[in-house]
Amino acid sequence: AQKVTQAQTEISVVEKEDVTLDCVYETRDTTYYLFWYKQPPSGELVFLIRRNSFDEQNEISGRYSWNFQKSTSSFNFTITASQVVDSAVYFCALSEAWTPGGSEKLVFGKGTKLTVNP
Amino acid sequence: DTEVTQTPKHLVMGMTNKKSLKCEQHMGHRAMYWYKQKAKKPPELMFVYSYEKLSINESVPSRFSPECPNSSLLNLHLHALQPEDSALYLCASSLRSSGADTGELFFGEGSRLTVL
Question: Which of B101, B107, B108 lies nearest to residue A98, judging by beta carbons?
Fold first, then answer.
């Protein structure tokens, strides 16, 4: 069964600090996809990144970076020089590859609430 | 056009009312989803439609009735709800093309439901 664990319930930092959000996952599939979503107070889920299980390259997008390590089943997210607008709940999620006749689910971790203080 | 549009954004209903939530996408996606999100909790899957057919029902009470009239539309009919059903209801869609699906879901902004 799929499982996503975000051990950090809440994190509070001061603006311009770097912050890393941890994500550990479990799956029996060899093909799977990992995601990070941001949910600001307004409520919508904003897609940040998708990674498939065959691509362990780390990725950087502006102040955001992601570290995918299959050996430790982790997909951590780092925000560099955090800003107040980064305050939100961040969800890590996992889905297994869809196959005809198979089931598909996007399973979310419990989320990490990040507060960036000015 | 990469939007999933949900209406209404806010809905207040009594326990005896019948109402519907609507979701629309024009990205050519063939899978559509309803998720329920309670405050301070992650989204939880309710239903999945694949090629307009219900493929997953996560043991959702019958007072929630999904409907997929065509590949672009997804409805959630609500009847005789309870106060504990108050939540943010999120619609999502994904490509669902055999051999090409990445599992990426595109979410709408949600419909915030309050049951009095």
Answer: B101
Give yes or no for a contact between B72 and B55, defined as CB atoms under 8 angstroms apart.
Answer: no
> What does residue A52 show for φ and ψ, rounded to 5 degrees?
-95, 165
Q: What are A76-98's pLDDT values in tens digits? A: 999 999 999 999 999 999 987 66
CA A115 to centroid of chain Cα atoms: 16
Strands A10-14 and A112-117, sheet pairing: parallel
Q: Which residue has the tokens 């995601």?
A: A35
Is A102 a residue whose pLDDT tops 70?
A: no
The SS3 of residue A12 is strand
Spatial contact of A96 and A86, defined as CB atoms under 8 Å apart: no
Contact: B108, A50; criterion CB under 8 Å = no
Using a CB-CB cut-off of 8 Å, the residues of chain B touching A52 are 102
